Structure formats: C-alpha cells, structure tokens
C-alpha cells in the first residue's frame, strides 16, 4: 500500500500521477520534432535522415510494450512504473550527450524502453482502479495534464534551440522524473497478479525481431544509416519473424499478445481501424516543423509558437469530449469527425510564406480540436467490451499497435516528402515539396472511415452514458 492516504478521489489522483510520465514523454517528443532541423545540421545529416530518431523511439515502444503488462503483474505496477521513469530519463541524458546520428538513434531507443513501461503500466493501473462509467472522465484527467507537454514543448524546445543549444532540451526531463518517482512512491498501489503466467520468451523474441527489423528496414530506406541492401534484408527478416509469431501465438498456452482479443468488434475497430488515422497523424510532428522552418525560413522558436496551438486545441476538446460522446454516441462521432480531422491535415498544404501567422495558428488549433476528439473516442471505444481480467493484455496490444502506427506514419510521411521532392527535381527541400505530403497523409487518415462505419449504433453506450 502507498504510505500516505490520497487527498483526492482515485479517479482524479491516479490519472494525474500517471500524467506526469505522459507529460514528460509528450513534451520530449514535441521538443525533438521542433529541433530536428538544427539537430540534423549539427550532426551533419539530412533532415529526412532524422526520421530515424523518431522511429527508433517508437520501435522501442512497440518492442517492449507487450511485456509491460507481464512485468507489472510479476513485479508490481509501482515498481515497474518507477523503474521505467528512471530508464527514460537516462536515455534523455544520453540523447543530450550524443555526437552522431548512430549514437542519437541508440539513445532514443533506450528512451523508448522506459517509455514502453511508463504509460501502458500507468494506463493499466487506471483501468483497474475505475469503473467503466468513470473511464472517459479518468482518461481525460490523464490526458489533460499530459497535453500541457505538447503545448509547452514546441516553444520551449524552439527557444532553447534558437538561443542556447539543442542538447539542453534533453535535460528538462530530469527534474520532472524526480517528481514522478516521488508521487508514484507515495500514492500508487503496487498492484500485481497473484499467479502471473510465465513469460512467453519465444513470442517476445519473434515479436521483438519482427517489429524492430521491419520498422528499421522501412525507416532506413533511402540509404540513411545503412545500405539499401541492409534495409531490404531487415524488412525480409522482420516479416518472416512476424509470420513466425502469428503461428506461435496460435499454439502457445500463454502467448505474449493474445490475438483472439481482436475477435471483439469494438477492440478490433478501435485498434486496427484507428491505426490508419494514427498513421496519418503520426507524420504531422515530423513534417510540420520541417515545413515551417525549411519551407518558410522560420526559427525553431517561431515554429514552436505556431505548432503548439494544435496542442492547445486538443486540450480544449478534452474537456468537452465526454459531453459530445454522450450526446451523439461513439459511432456518430467517429464516423462524422474523421472527415474534419483528415481535412485539417490537408489544409496545411494551403499554407505559404505569405500566409498570416494568425491564420496558420487558427487552422492548427481547429485541427487539434478534431484530432483530439478522434483520439479520445478511439482510445475509449477500444476498451468498451474488455473484461477487467483482459485489461493488461488489451492495453499492451493497443499501445503497441498505436506506436507502430505512429512510427509508420513518420516513415510514410518521409517517403511522401522524398518522392515529392524527387518528382519536382529539387536537391534540397522547399515549401512545394511538402504540400503533396500533407494531402497524402490526410487521405491516409480518412481511409479509416471504412472500418469505423462497421461500428454498431449503440457501440460503447455504457462508456459514453448515451444508453441512460
């Protein structure tokens, strides 16, 4: 038991503590995205090559998230949560000390090992601590403080990068991690399973090799960090390993990821159907700062001030999403909102150097509202019909697929940008190279509509409160 009685209801306190970790993770991601052009210049690399810094982190998340639930059940959620924060901040320090692209990518992978445990374990604690009726409210308490990270991150990272040095942005996490570990020690129960099943080591090996090799091969395509032949080999090895995992999972008594959960319609549509939307959104943090800085010549600080408005819009919607879902229901919201969320991505292609910054900020803010509503709805509907006994497995699967989708989005966005630049005959990136890429990722996210339309009209009624 924690060593001090909580001062707030558990539906408020636990999500806020987990939000410290999510705040640190989200702020770190947005800070790096804002500083990518300067980091690339300092490491003497192409800005597109820095996609590896984003994808290596996401690959690490996807590899280690599947065992996060087992580790929490085996060693205790509080123990793993605190250790994850320590690993994450250790990776942050290594990022600040990196002197080459290879070292930077490895440091980001170490960060991902910590991030893989922080948020999924924290989310599992929340799901086990609140009722389904309180789930949307609890998830909002989790995400609202965490959204401060994307608001603070871009201008803070831009300010440090413009007027100090990009290396300092990675040391911001040190004091935040100290606060997170202290709060977890005092107020989070060390929840664990009385008899956790043995870890599926063969399954972990197949999934780890499959996910990391496939994503590494796709991310390094274009001869970034390794040769083209090595990239192709990684993809082949990864696909074979993933195929081996699917065969293994059907025979294993306690598989690492219980794929039969995808038989649950709401979980399948929320996780797999929503992955197309997440892939489109995943390219945005990579493309947008490059567009503003390389295309329009803005400083990292000016770019950060503009991009943080999208996070501000997201935060505003988090306070209203529960009412919207109660009024219209999950299916109507997800199907209707996807068009606006996708259009907000394509609208960025209309920006030019002469576009007033106020108009850019307003467009990004409105887009953040639509995207936030879609994210909240997808996350909640995924757990609508999941039993409490399956929460840990569902959380691990959902988190792994989400990170893979975001990582794939970065890779797809980079490919689209490279193709656009090559077709226009440009040797360096200019503003016109980015416009087709934004249209492409908008269309990609809209493709999730095909899956969302399969939701029943009353899907998730217990969570949204619409049945009442």
SSE arrangement:
Layout (H helix, E strand, L loop, with lengths): L9 H33 L8 H14 L3 H8 L1 H21 L3 H29 L5 H12 L1 H16 L9 H15 L13 H19 L8 H24 L13 H18 L1 H12 L4 H19 L2 H8 L1 H17 L10 H25 L9 H33 L7 H16 L2 H4 L8 H4 L4
Helix pairs in contact: 1-5, 1-6, 1-7, 1-8, 1-12, 1-13, 2-5, 2-9, 2-17, 3-4, 4-5, 4-8, 5-17, 7-13, 9-10, 9-17, 11-16, 11-17, 11-18, 12-13, 12-17, 12-18, 13-16, 14-15, 15-16, 15-18, 17-18
- Give unreliable regions as ranges: none
Instruction: Give the SSE string.
Output: HHHHHHHHHHHHHHHHHHHH
Distance between the termini: 36 Å
In helices, the fraction of residues equals: over 70%
Largest sheet: none
- Specify the structural class: mainly alpha
Shape, per Cα inertia axes: globular
How large is the count of helical segments? 20
Q: What's the multimeric state?
A: single chain
**Binned strand content:** under 5%
Q: Cα-atom Rg, whole angstroms?
A: 21 Å
Number of strands: 0
Mean pLDDT: 81
Explain this structure to me?
It is globular and about 60 Å long. The protein has helices at 10-42, 51-64, 68-75, 77-97, 101-129, 135-146, 148-163, 173-187, 201-219, 228-251, 265-282, 284-295, 300-318, 321-328, 330-346, 357-381, 391-423, 431-446, 449-452, 461-464. The mean pLDDT is 81. With 468 residues, the protein is mainly α. 56% of the residues are buried.
């Amino acid at each position: 038991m924690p060593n001090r009685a909580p001062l707030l209801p558990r539906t408020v306190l636990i999500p806020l503590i987990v939000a410290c970790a999510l705040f640190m993770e989200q702020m770190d991601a947005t800070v790096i995205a804002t500083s990518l052009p300067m980091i690339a210049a300092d490491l003497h690399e192409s800005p597109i090559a820095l996609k590896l810094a984003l994808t290596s982190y996401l690959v690490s998340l996807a590899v280690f998230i599947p065992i996060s639930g087992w580790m929490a059940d085996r060693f205790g959620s509080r123990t793993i949560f605190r250790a994850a924060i320590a690993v994450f901040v250790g990776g942050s320090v290594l990022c600040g000390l990196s002197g080459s692209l290879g070292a930077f990518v490895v440091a980001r992978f170490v960060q991902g090992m910590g991030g893989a445990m922080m948020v999924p374990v924290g989310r599992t604690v929340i799901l086990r601590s609140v009722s389904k009726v309180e789930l949307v409210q609890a998830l909002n308490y989790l995400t609202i403080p965490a959204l401060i990270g994307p608001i603070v991150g871009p201008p803070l990272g831009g300010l440090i990068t413009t007027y100090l040095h990009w290396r300092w942005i990675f040391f911001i996490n040190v004091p935040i991690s100290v606060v997170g570990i202290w709060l977890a020690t005092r107020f989070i129960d060390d929840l664990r399973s009385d008899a956790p099943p043995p870890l599926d080591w063969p399954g972990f090996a197949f999934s780890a090799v499959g996910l990391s090799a496939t994503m590494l091969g796709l991310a390094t395509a274009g001869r970034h960090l390794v040769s083209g032949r090595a990239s192709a080999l990684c993809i082949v090895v990864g696909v074979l390993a993933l195929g081996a995992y699917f065969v293994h999972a059907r025979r294993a008594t306690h598989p690492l990821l219980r794929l039969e959960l995808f038989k649950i319609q709401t979980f399948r549509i929320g996780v797999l159907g929503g992955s197309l939307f997440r892939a489109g959104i995943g390219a945005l943090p990579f493309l947008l700062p490059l567009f503003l800085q390389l295309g329009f010549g803005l400083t990292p600080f000016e770019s950060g001030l503009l991009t943080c408005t999208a996070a501000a819009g997201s935060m505003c919607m988090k306070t209203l999403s529960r009412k919207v879902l109660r009024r219209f229901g999950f299916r109507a919201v997800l199907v209707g909102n996807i068009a606006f969320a996708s259009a907000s991505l394509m609208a960025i292609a209309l920006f030019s150097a002469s576009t007033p910054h106020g108009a850019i900020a307003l467009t990004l803010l409105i887009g953040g509202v639509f995207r936030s509503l879609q994210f909240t709805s997808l996350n909640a509907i995924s757990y609508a019909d999941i039993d409490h006994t399956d929460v840990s497995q569902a959380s691990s699967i959902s988190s792994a697929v989400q990170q893979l989708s975001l990582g794939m989005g970065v890779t797809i966005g980079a490919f689209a940008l490279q193709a656009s630049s090559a077709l226009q005959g440009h040797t360096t990136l200019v503003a016109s190279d980015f416009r087709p890429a934004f249209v492409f990722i908008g269309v990609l996210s809209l493709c999730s509509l095909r899956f969302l339309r399969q939701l029943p009209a009353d899907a998730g009624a217990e969570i949204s409160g619409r049945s009442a």
